[in-house]
Records
---
Amino acid sequence: MMAFLLAHGIDPGPLQRPLLAGAITGLIAAAPAGAAFAALGAFTVVADQVMRLPRPVTAVILVAAFTLAGALYGLVFRRAANDRRGGWLFGAAFGFVLWMAAPVVVLPLVGGGTIAAGRAATGFFACFLVWGLVAGALFPLVHAPLQGGMDQNGRSARFGPSAASMARGLLRRAPRQR
C-alpha cells in the first residue's frame, strides 16, 4: 500500500522541501503581520505586560515563532499548500488556528495571565490572520523554485503518477513533435 501511495505522490519527497518553503514563507509573512501587530497596539502589550522582555528581544522571538509556524504550515499541508487558488484560504485558516492556540501554548511558558484585551486583542487576532493569509498566498511562489530536480529529463524516478510505471518499465515515451 505504501508503494501505491508513494507512486501517486501522497508523501512529499526530499526534493520538494515543504519545511524549508514554509519557514521562508513564514519569515516573509512576519513583516506584514508584525506591522498589523504594532499598528493596533498589541506588540507593546505583549512585550511589556505578557513577556516582560525588551521590545527588540520580543520582536526577534515573534519573528522566530512565525518562522517556525511557517515550517509547521509546510509540514501540515504539504502539497495542498501549493494550491495557487486556495492557498490563501489554507493560510488564513492556519493563522486562525494559531491565534486560538497561541495563548494556550505561550501563557504557561511566560507565567500566566491574559494575552491582550480591547484593541490589543484585535491586533493580536489581525496579526495571525494577516500572517496566515500572506503565508498561504506566498507558499506556492516560494515552494516552486525549491522543487528543482523533481523532473529530470522529462521523468521522475521515485515520485509522482509515473513512478509505478517507471519502476516496471511500462511507461512509453511520447514521440517528439517536429
---
Amino acid sequence: MSAASCLLTEDQFLCSICQDVFTDPVAIPCGHNFCKTCITKHWNVNVPYQCPNCNKLFYTRPELQVNILISEMAAHSSEQQAAKPGEVPCDVCTGTKLKALKSCLVCLDSYCETHMEPHLTRLGLKRHQLIDSVENLEGRMCTKHDKLLELFCKTDQMCVCMLCTVLDHKNHDVVPLKEEYEGKKTELGKTEAEIQQMIQKRRLKIQEIKHSVELSEEDAGREISDGVQIFTALKKSVERSQAELINTIKEKQRKTEKQAEGFIKELEQEISELKKRSTEVVQLSHSEDHLHLLQIFRTLNTAPPTKNWTGVRVSPPSYEGTVRRAVNQLEETLSKQMKNLFEAELKRVQKSAVDVTLDPDSANPWLILSDDGKQVKTGDVKKNLPNNPKRFDRCVCVLAKQSFSSGRFYYEVQVKEKTKWDLGVVRESINRKGKITLTPQKGCWTIWLRNENEYKAWADPPVLLSLKSQPEKVGVFVDYEESLVSFYDVKSAALIYSFTGCCFTEKLYPFFSPHPNDGGKNSAPLIISPVNHTE
C-alpha cells in the first residue's frame, strides 16, 4: 500500500466533482474515478451520460464499478492528519498540508507518511538522515559554508560544519553532534533528577508547613480552651466574692435592725404601761373619795418599773475594711489562678529546651569555665589568652557556643547564692571590646541582680523588678518569630519579666555574666542546669 501510494500525487486522491478525498470511489468505462454519490447525482442531471473529465459520451448509463485500490488508498490518506497550527507541515503535499512525521537533514524537507515512503525504499534516499519532524531546517545549515551542521566545537561551544573544523575552528576540540548530544542529554538527565529532588524537598517543606499549621491550630485551640477555663474561673471568683461582700454587709444590717426592733419593742411596752398608769392617776385625781385616794395613793404615785435608756444606743455597723478584705481575698484567689497559669506557661516553654554550653573563645580572661562548659565563675587571676575577635576583653562575661536565628529555645541557669549576675541573650554583632551597654538598642535583652536583692531589666530606661522571692534558678525563653524574650523564676513558676516587640535581625547567643567575686561574697558560679520537664 505504501509503495503504491507514493507513486500517486495528492490530487489523484481527490474527486474532480467535489474536490475532496474520495468517498466510495467508483470507476467508469473510460477509466476515471469519482465518488459514487457525486457521479450518480451528476448523471441524474446531465443526459446523455458524459465523463466529467474526458467528456466521453455513453449512450447507456454505465454500470459503476467500485475501485477497491483507490478506495483503500483514499481511506488511508484521509486517516492522516492535516497539520495543525504549530505542527510541521509536509513540504510535498500540494493541497491540504498533512502533518509531517520526519524531516530529512540532506533534502532539508519534511514529509508526511505517504511522501516519506521513497526515503524508506529507494537505495539512494535510504542513506539520508531522517529525524523527527522539525521546522526551520535551513537553520541546521552552516550559514558561512552552506554545509550541514553535524559537529560540535567544545572550545567555542557551538555547532559547526566539516569546513568549519578546517578553517575557523582548526585545532579546536570538535566532536560529532551526536556525541555532544548524548553528553548533554546525560547532563539534562542529571538536571532533571536535581529538579525532581528540589520538587520533592519543596513538597516535603509544604507538608512540614501544613503540619506546623495543624500544630499551631491545635495549640491555638488548647490555648483558647485553657484561657476560657481560666477566665470563667476568675469570673466566678469575682461573682462569688461580690456575693459574699453583699451578704456580709446585709447580715450586719440585719443584726442592726434586729437589735433596734428589740429596743423599740421594749420601749413600746414601757410606754403602754406608763399610759395605763397615767390613766389611773388621772382617774384618781378626780376622785372625791378621800379614803380611797389616800389608800391607793402610795401605789399610783410610784412610777412602774422601767429601764434606764440613757446609755442605750443603736450604732450603725462599721463597714470599714469590708470591701478591702473582700478584695484582698479575691486577690489571693487571683494569685492562685495566676500561679496555675504561669505553671502551665512554664511547662509549655520548657518543651523548647535546648542544650547550651559555654564558648571558651568568647570568655573574658578573668573567667573560669568548667570542663563540661556548664559552669562559669570569676577567678582572682587574669589568664593570658589570645585576644581573638570573639573574646570580651573588659566585661566579665561569656556567650554560649550555640546560636539561634529562628524558632523557639529555652534554657535554665542556677543563680543560687550569688549577689550579682547578668543573664539574657545578645545578637551576634555585639561589641566585645571595651565597655558594653546591655540595652535592646545595642542588641542585648538581659536582666540583672545587684546588691543581693535589687533586680532590674536592662530596658531603656532600666525597669526595677519587684519579686516576691529571690530566684534560685532562672529560665530564659526566646521566640524569634514573635520577637519575645521572657525570664522565669523556675521554682515559683513566676514570670520575672518579658521583652516584647524585640528587633531580631541576626543570630542570638545566650549571654552570661557572673560578675567579680567581690571578695568571696559573689564566688558562686552560674550553672547551666538540665531542664526537668513536668507534665
